[in-house]
Amino acid sequence: MAVMPASSPSREVTEHSMTTWDGTELFYRAWQPVIPTNKGLLLFHRGHEHSGRFQDLVDELGLEEIAVFAWDARGHGKSPGERGYAENLADVVKDMDVFVRHISREHHIPLENMVVLGHSVGAVGVCA
Q1: How crowded is the C-beta side of 88, counted as CA atoms within 13 Å?
Q2: CA distance 75 to 68
Q3: CATH number where 18 lies
Q4: Structural domain of residue 44, as residue ranges?
Q5: What pLDDT score does 128 carry?
Q6: Is pLDDT of 4 > 50?
């Protein structure tokens, strides 16, 4: 886990990885309040983007009491794979499911305390 400069005095930004259903290690960022919380917002980027592009959104939302998480899908940002490529949408949906469950388990946020927000093709995957 790498700790990055805070986007605000009450929030710590960290970098992580998680193992998907097929053993692939995917990268994600976490913007966590200094005071621990059991509430989370999960962000899913559009095609050809990555989690780092959500920094301004996290800053603008100002959700100081909610942990925010954003992944780099396969082939995006710091995650491995051919740039912008996944075998099919079903694989992406399975990755999303693993990501949500990983966040719940590793960051102690119950599923019922999570909100997901998907942008463009990220929204399609979240809906599936």
Answers
A1: 2
A2: 22
A3: 3.40.50.1820
A4: 2-127
A5: 87
A6: no
- CB-based burial, 55-69: b 16+ in 10 Å, e otherwise: eeebeeeebeebbbb
Residue 96 and residue 33: Cα distance in Å, rounded?
Answer: 23
Supply 45's token pair.
Answer: 């980027």
* Residues 8-28, mean pLDDT to the nearest whole number: 90
What pTM value is reported for the model?
Answer: 0.89
Q: What is the torsional sign of CA 119, 14, 4, 19?
A: negative
Q: What is the DSSP code (8-state) at residue 35? A: S
* Eight-state DSSP code of residue 54: G
pLDDT of residue 86: 84
For residues 88 and 95, give the distance between their C-alpha atoms in angstroms, rounded to a whole number.
11
Token pair of 91 as six digits: 């694989």
Helix (H, G, I), strand (E, B) or coil at 78: coil
Query: How many other CB atoms are there within 10 angstroms of residue 29's CB atom?
Result: 24
- The pLDDT of 22-44, averaged and rounded, is 96
Token pair, residue 37, equals 């919380």
The dihedral through the CA atoms of 11, 36, 18, 102 has a sign that is: negative
Total number of domains constituting the chain: 1
